[in-house]
Design a protein that fits this description.
The complex is a heterodimer of chains A (260) and B (343). Chain A has two domains: 152 residues, Rossmann fold, CATH 3.40.50.300; 68 residues, no CATH class. Chain A is built from nine helices and twelve strands. In chain A, the strands form three sheets. In chain A, strands 6-7-8-3-9-10 form a six-stranded mixed beta sheet, sandwiched between helices. Chain A has a four-stranded antiparallel beta sheet with strand order 2-1-4-5, with helices on one face. A two-stranded antiparallel ribbon of chain A has the order 11-12. In chain A, α3 runs parallel beside α5 and α4 runs antiparallel to α5. Chain B is mainly alpha-helical. Chain B has a single domain, classed as Orthogonal Bundle (ABC transporter involved in vitamin B12 uptake, BtuC). Chain B is globular. Classes of the chains: A alpha/beta (260), B mainly alpha (343). The interface between A and B is medium-sized, with 38 and 28 residues.
Chain lengths: 260, 343
């Protein structure tokens, strides 16, 4: 794995057409942990993640990668330390899984030096880790939604970065596939100590898989902490306007929300 | 041992199929090139063709025809076909629109207007002097389209819309001038059909730097476009500078199409259909797609030029028209044969 990289948001403000989306938001993404960003629809979760990934330029404030503003660093150098999987990405028809995963090596290549031994290794490893090796030569459109999402994650893994950002990776997946995918991300995080930050809709899945939760409300941080600290009856009512009971998940011991 | 165990993985089979196709296409291209030198209004023996290369004799009519007319014509067909098809593949990938045509960037519209103005205002009717006017018109209109389309920050759709709007404007301006002046129309209509008549070596030599620069930029762009195909967000995440990558690809298109339109007039259709044929052989990898487009584009133009010279078509059908007559049915056949994937 690459040298440690650290991500920090400092007083971010973003507005779309004068409507403020993020307001003076500061947050630290803990190294080597899984951070999940939660909050109601339109609270700015995705915008926050996209800002962290330098896909959204803030109107004020900055994202610091290793202490330096991410927008002032060479894009290629950022791409060697930070990968993001955007929400529902699209690929051209006929693209095979191996082709896609190979594209993850782009920041380590150039037009003149297109393929190296490390590239082959990283692609092979990403395919193995995601269990996609036996599907490597199939075109993406021939795969199920869950497999396709794994292929995209394999691409992000082949990028071989210390930080991995995922924007709602479980969209369009049924519950078993959501669990399977998040378990995969969890085991990858445990194996390689990669820093993961992702947006999730489902608060119970967030509570189960996160080490650290950032709860947003109306473009600002409402609270942060470990699942037991964040997923409380009081917080859920204030963040989501949801009246609920919290029980302890009988299998994993994490907090579990039962809406009233 | 079962068949399954001995069969190579799909990608290996695909890769070797790709190489076999590549060889087959290269061979057909060489064969077509040879035929293109051999046949025409005046058939010339293989022996004389060979002699004209190794022992050129300016007093022999056959040698003059080969070296002075057919060879420049063949090279022009190579360059025009390859350049149009390559830029077609670039623009389709850049805009993620399978129906995009390099003409959409306003190059042809600008070049046409330049030529019409040149005939109308300056009274020039010698096609050789159209080269730089057409090039200038094409360049100016592409620069306009680029800035109207958001100068690399806008979406590809905005770029196409700006190009379509400006093309329509330029064509309308040009046509209104042609309505006024019958003399301009007479000169213009030969240019606009797209042909390889009367192209001489000095013209080719003067345009060669543009083709070379365009080819180099296209090669670099093929690497960038492989990432851009996954969407702007993913491409940025993979370390690409989107504005720069788009700019490079556009420069490649301008060089290639600008040089072609100034040499052979606005040849439509080649840039639109050849990339679709190329994708049948290349899969989703832009580097292979560009390579196949280059070869198939050259092949289509040579074939079009060759058949256009057959007596059936009066011996002088414009290559641009023939390319569409051959390419259209060929594409339909390919689509029907392989189902409609990738279209």
């Amino acid at each position: 794995m690459n040298a440690p990289a650290h991500l920090h948001a400092n007083a971010l403000s973003v507005a779309f057409a004068k409507t403020p989306i993020l307001k003076d938001l500061s947050a630290d993404i803990p190294d080597g942990k899984i951070t999940v960003i939660v909050g109601p629809n339109a609270c700015g979760k995705s915008t926050f993640l996209r800002s962290l990934a330098r896909l959204q330029k803030p109107d004020s404030g900055e994202v610091l990668l290793d202490g330096k503003s991410i927008h002032k660093q060479a894009n290629r150098s950022v791409a060697q330390r930070l990968a993001i999987l955007p929400q529902s990405p699209s690929a051209p028809e006929g693209l095979t899984v191996r082709d896609l995963v190979t594209r993850g090596r782009t920041p380590h290549q150039s037009a003149l030096r297109q393929w190296s031994h490390q590239d082959a290794e990283a692609v092979g490893r990403a395919l193995d880790l995601t269990g996609m090796a036996h599907n490597a030569n199939r075109p993406l459109e021939a795969l199920s939604g869950g497999q396709r999402q794994r292929a995209w994650i394999a691409m992000a893994l082949a990028q071989d970065t210390q930080i991995l950002l995922l924007d709602e990776p479980t969209t369009y997946l049924d519950l078993p596939h959501q669990i399977e995918l998040l378990s995969l991300i969890q085991s990858l995080n445990k194996q390689s100590n990669q820093t993961v930050a992702m947006v999730l809709h489902d608060i119970n899945l967030a509570a189960r898989f996160a080490d650290h939760i950032i709860a947003l409300r109306a473009g600002a941080i409402f609270t942060t902490g470990n699942p037991a600290e964040v997923v409380t009856r009081n917080n859920m009512e204030q963040v989501f306007d949801l009246k609920c009971q919290i029980i302890s998940d009988p299998v994993h011991g994490t907090p579990h929300v039962i809406p009233e | 041992m079962t068949i399954l165990e001995t069969a190579p993985p799909l990608s290996d089979r695909r890769a070797s199929a790709r190489q076999i196709w590549l060889m087959a296409i290269l061979l057909s291209l060489l064969l077509l090139s040879a035929l293109s030198l051999r046949f025409g209004l005046r058939p010339i023996s293989w022996h004389s063709i060979w002699d004209s290369f190794v022992a050129y004799d300016a007093t022999k009519a056959d040698h003059l025809v080969i070296q002075g007319m057919r060879l420049p014509r063949l090279l022009a067909a190579w360059l025009a076909g390859a350049a149009l098809a390559t830029s077609g593949a670039l623009i389709q990938s850049l805009t993620r629109n399978p129906l995009a045509d390099p003409g959409l960037l306003g190059i042809n519209g600008g070049a046409s207007l330049g030529v019409i103005l040149c005939i109308f205002l300056l009274g020039i009717s010698d096609p050789a002097s159209f080269v730089w006017v057409a090039m200038g018109g094409g360049l100016i209109s592409t620069v306009l389209v680029f800035f109207l389309g958001g100068a690399g920050r806008g979406t590809p759709l905005r770029l196409i819309l700006a190009g379509a709007a400006l093309s329509a404007l330029f064509l309308a301006l040009g046509r209104s001038l042609l309505l006024i002046s019958q003399r301009s129309l007479d000169v213009y209509r030969f240019w606009v059909l797209g042909g390889l008549d009367g192209i001489e070596m000095p013209t080719l030599a003067a345009l060669l730097p543009f083709f070379a620069l365009g080819a180099a930029l296209a090669a670099v762009s093929s690497f960038n476009l492989n990432a851009m195909m996954l969407g702007a967000d993913t491409a940025r995440s993979l370390g690409l500078r989107i504005g720069l990558a788009r700019g490079l690809a556009l420069c490649a298109i301008v060089c290639l199409c600008g040089a072609t339109v100034s040499m052979a007039g606005p040849i439509a259709f080649v840039g639109l259909i050849v990339p679709h044929m190329a994708r049948r052989f290349s899969g989703a990898d832009m580097r292979w797609c560009l390579l196949f487009s280059t070869l198939l584009g050259a092949g289509l133009m040579i074939l079009a030029d060759l058949t256009g010279r057959l007596p059936v078509f009066g011996g002088n059908m414009q290559a641009g028209v023939m390319a569409a007559l051959i390419g259209g049915p060929a594409l339909v056949w390919l689509i029907r044969r392989n189902g409609s994937t990738a279209l």
